[in-house]
Amino acid sequence: MRSLFHTTTILAMFAAIPAGAMTIASSTNGPDAGVPAGQRLITNFDTAAGLGGGYQLTTGSLSGQYAAPLGDTTQYLTVLGGQIASLAISPAVKALSFYWGSIDNYNTVSFFSGSALVASFTGGQVPAAPADGSQGSPTNNRRVSFAFDGAAIDRVNFASSSNSFELDTIAGAVPEPASWVMLVAGFGLVGAAARRRNPAVVAA
User: Fold this and answer.
1) How far is residue 38's CA from residue 35's CA, in Å, rounded to a whole number?
2) Any residues with CB less than 8 A from the CB of 35 and at least 6 apart, and which?
3) Tens of pLDDT along 138-186?
4) Is the pTM of this model over 0.70?
5) What is the rounded distance in angstroms from the CA atom of residue 115 to the CA atom of residue 158?
């Protein structure tokens, strides 16, 4: 009985830890200045590595369909109306940024840790961005940075309900080694407690 109680207590402690919160840490006017200090490049969409779902990798602009983020002359990701593009990230990150072009309030970005949705944001929630799809405005073409509190993000979805969601140059910061050690040690304790068994009691 003690072993079961001990296991249940440890599991309850881990269940009480919040899955993680997320905030928009910053938003910087375009044209894009590139990867922020303290982050590493995840993808600049020169290839489709890590991508799934519905999307196009393109350059330039096509009227009524998509427009290159302000100042961007390289290949970028376009998600047309009704599509969802998914990007796998390895190793997982504690913070992430990308250059968001012609921000619209019908663009949605969703962050996942494993199969758990951590949070979602729309273009209408980006600070100082009018989110009206204007293509030439520096305030509506921005590098947007997200910070995650207690969550390791390994997948990002980009969705748009109309044409379109354009973005480029995703970068991120991985958790410190100490955070990974604590996480692994915690799961190890849960596993060890679950394997413990009471000794069999022999009736006299």
Assistant:
1) 9
2) 41, 97, 169, 171
3) 999 999 999 998 899 999 999 999 999 999 999 999 986 644 445 445 4
4) yes
5) 16
Q: What is the pLDDT of residues 96-149, one digit of tens each?
A: 999 999 999 999 999 999 999 999 999 999 999 999 999 999 999 999 999 998
The pLDDT of residue 23: 87
Which residue from 186, 144, 190 is spatially nearest to 166, judged by alpha carbons?
A: 144
Strands (E), the chain: 21-29, 40-43, 51-53, 56-58, 76-79, 84-93, 95-101, 107-113, 116-122, 142-149, 153-160, 165-173
Structure tokens at 203: 């009736």
**Residue for token pair 């405005």:** 137
Reduce the DSSP state of residue 41 to 3 states and report it. strand
**Exposed/middle/buried for residue 123 (C-beta within 10 Å: 0-12, 13-18, 19+):** buried
φ/ψ (deg, to 5) at 139: -75, -15
Running DSSP on this structure, what letter comes out for residue 50?
Answer: T
Tokens at 27, concatenated: 């938003």
Q: What is d(CA 79, CA 52) in angstroms, rounded to the nearest whole number?
A: 11
Pairwise CA distance, residues 42 & 93, whole Å: 10
Name the DSSP class of 191.
Answer: H
Residue pair 119/8 in contact (Cβ under 8 Å)? The answer is no
Distance CA 54, CA 125 (A): 24
